[in-house]
UniProtKB/TrEMBL annotation:
It comes from Blautia faecicola. GO terms for molecular function: antiporter activity; xenobiotic transmembrane transporter activity. The lineage of its organism: Bacteria, Bacillati, Bacillota, Clostridia, Lachnospirales. GO terms for cellular component: plasma membrane. Pfam families: MatE. It comes from the Bacteria. NCBIfam families: matE (TIGR00797). PANTHER family: MULTIDRUG RESISTANCE PROTEIN YPNP-RELATED. It is a multi-pass membrane protein. It is found in: Cell membrane. This is MATE family efflux transporter.
Length: 459
């Protein structure tokens, strides 16, 4: 049996206390997600404080579009990493490395294709999102630079996903902290000292992401011999690529479908004007910070379930999901209280205190959606649990339910009601996404239980 290379950061999650393993893995994931979000948040803070409300509206309102683009790459890499985690759990390390090599081919192909396609479609997409001509030049420049840097975004996502598949959630965090600090410094240098506009924020983001990718690669080369690829690992296998895509594409689509729904909502908000765009953007940034705990639990459970599924330990899968659901519910109550009562004041991070209407918009959003955070957290749990088990289609169906609900609310209420009515699109989407997820998870676990009892009876 080949050893895992003796690296202490590799964590085998097929033995030991599930709740302890999940918490130990989740905390670095949470901090890593915070710093990964920090790229766009730092851009928004610097732009809002030094360039004004229009710059904040321009950069902040692109969050949904960036989520659409980078979410696709993140979904692909997360899906590919599930097979890496499963074969790691099964202790078939050479097979695992082959999937790593095939994943690299696919990530490069997607990143290059997306850069070309989105650069061509940049302005048409922004016109569809109802951007005014006054704000269009800033948004076009910002997104054009982000699209040009998708190859480094893909590189970091893939390398970090491979590390997490092996149970190492700490190392990607350290690299993100370094690059996030660099991002802030470059934002300040490019905007305050060089005198650039929103383009400076975009360049800072791409450069910082490139640094995190390079650091991740150097670390893998030096510390993870189990991931050192040989020439034979790169032998092209369309069958294995097909297996990777069978998991990666549904996860990517699920991210993108969710993002399309958010883009639809953003398009409706844009009609209300710059103050509503800025307030909605600030609220969204704050909510994303708090929901990173949900994202971290989801990514953790995907790795945990993937490794235990590979090892055939389905009892541990059920136990881990049950513990995580409880932790998500407890945290949801905390997030509800904080954002309901303090959301307006926390928005001051992005907005000057004199912008009373903008702050009011942020507060209205939180008062409309706060009660639904337990549903939002549960989406990440059951979606990622199913993906860790190897089921990619149903999580994507959950994304479709989410998109239909968001779009339906916007079509019914946008232009016919207040801003608060449009905000109801998020709760409707979160509840709808769970409609296929929870029943299918229960069905899957019951099917496994029946199979296990049948095998015991036969023996």
């Amino acid at each position: 049996m080949e050893k895992n290379g003796g690296n202490s950061t590799i964590r085998d999650m097929t033995s030991g206390s599930p709740i302890k393993l999940i918490i130990q893995f989740m905390i670095p994931m949470f901090l890593g997600n915070i710093f990964q979000q920090f790229y766009n948040i730092a851009d928004s803070i610097v732009a809002g404080q030094f360039l004004g409300v229009r710059a904040l509206a321009a950069i902040g309102s692109t969050g949904s579009l960036m989520f659409f683009v980078t979410g696709w790459l993140n979904g692909l890499s997360s899906g590919f990493a599930i097979l890496v985690a499963q074969w790691f759990g099964a202790k078939k390390y050479d097979r695992m490395r082959h999937y790593v090599a095939m994943s690299i081919y696919l990530m490069v192909a997607f990143a290059v294709s997306m850069t070309i396609g989105f650069e061509i479609a940049n302005r048409p997409i922004l016109h569809l999102m109802n951007y005014s001509e006054e704000i269009m030049p800033d948004v076009t420049s910002y997104m054009g630079i982000i699209y040009a840097g998708l190859i480094v975004t893909a590189a970091y996502n893939a390398l970090a996903a491979f590390l997490r598949a092996l149970g190492d959630s700490k190392s990607p965090l350290y690299f993100l902290i370094i690059s996030a600090v660099i991002n802030v410094l470059l934002d300040i240098v490019f905007i305050i000292y060089v005198g650039m506009g929103v383009e400076g924020c975009a360049y800072a983001t791409v450069i910082a992401q490139a640094i995190s990718a390079v650091l991740c690669l150097i670390y893998i080369v030096k510390k993870f011999p189990i991931l050192h690829l040989k020439k034979e690992n790169f032998t092209v296998s369309f069958q294995e690529m097909g297996k990777l895509l069978a998991l990666g594409i549904p996860m990517a689509l699920q991210f993108s479908i969710t993002a399309i729904g958010v883009i639809v909502v953003q398009g409706a908000i844009n009609v209300y004007g710059e103050n509503y765009m800025a307030g909605f953007s600030a609220a969204g940034k704050l909510q994303n910070i708090f929901s990173t705990v949900f994202v971290a639990f989801g990514a953790t459970i995907a790795t945990y379930v993937g490794q235990n599924r590979g090892a055939g330990k389905m009892d541990r899968v059920k136990q881990g999901v049950r513990c995580t659901q409880l932790m998500i519910l407890v945290y949801s109550v905390f997030a509800m209280l904080i954002l309901y009562f303090l959301g307006r004041y926390m928005a001051l991070l992005f907005i000057d205190a004199s912008e009373i209407q903008v702050l009011g918009v942020a507060e209205t959003y939180f008062h409309t959606v706060f009660w639904c955070y337990p549903f939002l957290g549960s989406i990440f749990l059951y979606r990622n649990a199913l993906q860790g088990l190897g089921y990619g289609l149903v999580p994507m169906v959950g994304g479709i339910f989410e998109l239909v609900a968001r779009t339906g609310i916007i079509m019914l209420l946008a232009g016919h009601t207040s801003f608060a009515g449009v905000c109801l699109a998020d709760p409707a989407a979160w509840i709808s996404a769970l409609i296929p997820l929870i029943p299918y998870y229960i069905y899957t676990m019951r099917k496994w239980e029946k199979q296990r009892k049948a095998q015991m009876t036969a023996n």
